[in-house]
Amino acid sequence: MGKERVLIIGSQFSGTFCARDLKKKFAVTVVDCKEYFEYTPGVLRAYVKPCHLDALTFHLQPVLERSMGVKFICGEVKKLDGEAKTATVKPIFANAPEDIAFDYCVICAGCNFGPFKPMGESLWFPTVHEEGRKISDWPHIDERFLEGRRRHILEEHGKLRDLAERKASMLVVGAGFIGVEWVTEVQHFFPDISLTIIDALPRCLGPLPDKAAKYCSKYMHARGIKEFYDCKYDAKSSEFWKKVELPNGADVEYVCIGVKASNYFMPQETLSE
């Protein structure tokens, strides 16, 4: 009797760990929309220092199939049928989807970081889903491929260089760990950009210990980064811009708050609002 089949959707941290551990007792297939692994916590540095991307990424197929010994499909899961135990997958180089049967399915699809975007699009994770790419702010770039991701990072890096040359102003919305890291990375590599960070909470790094928040706030203050807390973001309000000492608005805004789960392919009855 052959091994039971496990389908793993997503191949970032949890997906690759599951594949490695389950392959001993199951026939494992991993599906991912993109051809590469990206170390998401480090991607902020790549935008200010593009060569850093090489340290954060690798192609999935040789690692999963040759080194780990599991099957890899580069494609997007469009539908998941729990009763029939099938997933409808559209391979990256195919025009039509195909059904993949499984005995067990592990959802490791992760999330996106743009709460104000319909599909959660943000700089911090590549835009790889078919519907998301249709409404993307960067439709000319295909981030399913590593070279496309590299192009996007170089393009954004060029925008930062232009902001620095103009001594422009930047507003970072959200002083969680992403917002604080982003504003300090930009300050270190582009010190001529005027930086402001805000948060609706009373201090930065809301869920982290007070000691961590005090350390980061002291660091930002020492480097001339303006901080405003108990401050709700409202880009349409002139009072908001006066409060953050940017009466004419910011030249550029980066939103670093909230997440959206990448679970749109799951049965509707399994999803919450």
Q: How would you describe what is shown here?
A:
- The strands form four sheets. This protein has a six-stranded mixed sheet with strand order 7-6-5-2-1-8. It has a four-stranded parallel sheet with strand order 12-11-10-13, with helices on one face.
- The mean pLDDT is 94.
- The chain starts with a strand and ends in a 12-residue tail after the last strand.
- A hairpin with a 4-residue loop joins β5 (71-81) and β6.
- The protein has helices at residues 13-22, 43-48, 60-68, 130-134, 146-165, 177-189, 210-222, 238-243, and strands at residues 5-9, 27-32, 36-38, 57-59, 71-81, 86-91, 98-101, 104-107, 111-112, 169-173, 194-198, 226-228, 252-255, 260-261.
- Helix content is 30%, strand content 23%.
- It has 273 residues and is of the alpha/beta class.
- The radius of gyration is 21 Å and the shape is elongated.
Question: How would the blueprint of this fold be written?
Answer:
Layout (H helix, E strand, L loop, with lengths): L4 E5 L3 H10 L4 E6 L3 E3 L4 H6 L8 E3 H9 L2 E11 L4 E6 L6 E4 L2 E4 L3 E2 L17 H5 L11 H20 L3 E5 L3 H13 L4 E5 L11 H13 L3 E3 L9 H6 L8 E4 L4 E2 L12
Parallel strand pairs: 1-2, 1-8, 2-5, 10-11, 10-13, 11-12
Antiparallel strand pairs: 3-4, 5-6, 6-7, 9-14
Order of helices and strands: EHEEHEHEEEEEHHEHEHEHEE
Termini Cα gap: 42 Å
- In terms of structural class, how would the helical and strand content be classed? alpha/beta
Largest sheet: 6 strands, mixed
| Helical content class | 25-40%
> Strand-residue fraction?
15-25%
Overall number of strands? 14
Spatial order of the strands in the main sheet? 7-6-5-2-1-8
Low-confidence stretches: none
Please report the number of helical segments: 8
General form: elongated
User: Mean of residue pLDDT?
Assistant: 94
Indicate the radius of gyration in whole angstroms: 21 Å
